[in-house]
Design goal:
The chain is of the alpha+beta class and 240 residues long. Helix content is 39%, strand content 21%. The strands form two sheets. Strands 3-2-1-4-5 form a five-stranded antiparallel beta sheet. The two termini are 38 Å apart.
């Protein structure tokens, strides 16, 4: 990669005027925007590059709204783009990043993690579990991590229950909403998704009913902490 270029992952594109696009990119320094002038013209050399889900090296001009002067492809993620489920998962991930990261986040760390997630998603036969790994780790990154190993009230380590109503782990003594509780065996997949090294991820191959229950819990956590439910998630559920 040219050292004067920025490594950038395209989150979102918006049509601008007749032939151009506004490009929103995630980089190791946060979200950046750039104007891809004339990119919708058939003869534009950047036409095939300015797509969501692409990892590029990008040359940006200076100014409040930089122009994308040049770009080179780093990774196309062909196996993702050929799979509707995986493509929709990428849309979910892109929405979560675009609407929830802030200027104060550790963007370098998150940027490297996103690349690892995309690599894992490209190869995985269990893409929905890869999404769960991203969702829980992203919550943790934003400061809403769940302590799965001890009671949130007294730090006891056994027996533990996950209270899906509050999104917290409690021992029997402090669990007030038993009707919402999952025992340790039931919430173990959530614990695994949060703590697993994405480069060493091995799918749990959960049955559909159990996975849907865990996904509902993760969705509730996002509702509670971020009031966020990506539009692409509705599409994903209809496909699933």
């Amino acid at each position: 990669m040219n050292r004067d270029y920025d490594e950038a992952y395209i989150l979102r594109t918006i049509d601008y005027q007749e032939h151009s696009k506004l490009i929103y990119m995630y980089t190791a320094s946060g979200i950046k925007s750039g104007l891809a002038r004339g990119v919708k013209k058939m003869q534009s050399p950047l036409r095939h590059l300015m797509q969501t889900g692409m990892l590029l090296s990008v040359d940006l001009s200076k100014g409040k709204l930089p122009t994308i002067k040049d770009a080179e492809m780093l990774t196309y993620y062909k196996s993702i783009k050929e799979d509707l489920i995986k493509t929709t998962i990428v849309s979910v991930i892109n929405e979560l990043i675009y609407y929830n990261v802030s200027d104060h986040d550790d963007h370098q760390k998150l940027f490297q993690f996103i690349k690892k997630v995309l690599d894992a998603l490209s190869l995985s036969d269990s893409p929905l579990e890869i999404l769960n790994v991203f969702e829980l780790k992203f919550l943790y990154f934003l400061g809403y991590g769940i302590q799965f190993n001890r009671c949130s009230a007294c730090s006891k380590v056994e027996p533990l229950f996950f209270d899906s109503h509050s999104g917290m782990v409690f021992c029997e003594e402090h669990l007030e909403h038993h009707q919402h509780a999952l025992d340790k065996e039931a919430f173990a997949p959530l614990q695994y998704f949060l703590h697993v090294d994405i480069e060493k991820f091995k799918p749990l191959n959960l049955d559909k009913q159990k996975h849907q229950r865990l996904q509902a819990i993760i969705d509730d956590l996002y509702d509670v902490h971020l009031s966020a439910r990506p539009k692409a998630k509705k599409i994903l559920k209809s496909l699933d």
